[in-house]
Design goal:
Helices cover 39% and strands 13% of the residues. It contains four helices and two strands; from the N terminus they run H-H-E-H-E-H. It is globular and about 35 Å long.
């Protein structure tokens, strides 16, 4: 396991290759299986494939998000505060 962590890289350059629905499902499953304290999973995951929205997201922070404008897909992790969960469900 430690070797895997030592060899990990952060990729910031992407191709225009289309990501298959099967690969997206595996990505979502991996994200949903991430451990959390007491299994409370205080997050929501959102898959973004819309190029216009990816460009907007690339400008959301002053530093560190510019690479999103060139990605075919982004998986957003949204940290939920205890009161946020109820607000989100009430909007649905």
């Amino acid at each position: 396991m430690i070797e895997l962590l030592r060899k990990r890289r952060s990729i910031r350059e992407f191709t225009a290759e289309v990501i298959s629905p099967e690969a997206i499902q595996i990505l979502i499953e991996a994200a949903l299986r991430a451990p959390s304290s007491r299994g409370n999973n205080p997050w929501e995951f959102v898959v973004v494939k819309d190029p216009d929205l990816l460009i907007k997201l690339s400008k959301a922070k002053q530093h560190g998000s510019d690479f999103l404008k060139n990605t075919p897909l982004a998986l957003l992790l949204i940290k939920l505060l205890p009161s946020t969960t109820m607000i989100l469900w009430n909007r649905l």
